[in-house]
Amino acid sequence: MKSFIKIFLVSITITLSTTSCVSSYVARNDGYLTTEALLAHRTNYSKSSIEAESKNFNENSSAVFEEETSEKSYSQEAYKLIGEAKTYLGTPYRYGGTTRSGIDCSSFVQHAFNALNISLPRTSILQSNEGKIVKKDQLKKGDLIFFAQSPKSRISHVGIVERVEPDGEIYFIHASSSKGVTISSLEGEYWKKRYRTAKRILESNNNLDNIETQNIHSDLAKVSS
To answer: Is 217 one of the annotated active-site residues of the chain?
Structure first.
């Protein structure tokens, strides 16, 4: 009797174990993942996430660096330009004049840019065709601003943005027919109503940008590897 009971219990145990194994097998074949598969999936997901985040970091860092480098290069050129222009302060105005003994507005601008090895046309109207248009609220040091006596008349005067105050007020250096080379505010009533357009001549030093950008890309690659 006892032997029969033992055999009966052993049979039940084997049956339950077999059912469990079959259920586990079916579950896995129905789309469930084993512990090993889950761990492998998590490892692959984490690796992919890290690689994606690293790529985004590299791209964003490069974009920021290029923008900062470009701005720094532009600022250096602008300061050099204004520094040269200020050496003419007090120079008397002379229509058609091209020297420090007497100079007109377009020749003054031409000479200032020559110090940066940038050639501009001789007259203000031709200078207004150079560079790219800049909105008034986006003016920066070194930009050219142009004036005309009336909305329908042609460009007749040019100056260089000397600085932009935190409140947005714009000052420019130019050869005034009444004061010679001087610095004026664009908010002045006379200039405010005669303002017509602005152009940006200065551009970033592309060679410097390319070299420093390549260096940062190399450094970022080392960090992410």
So the answer is: no
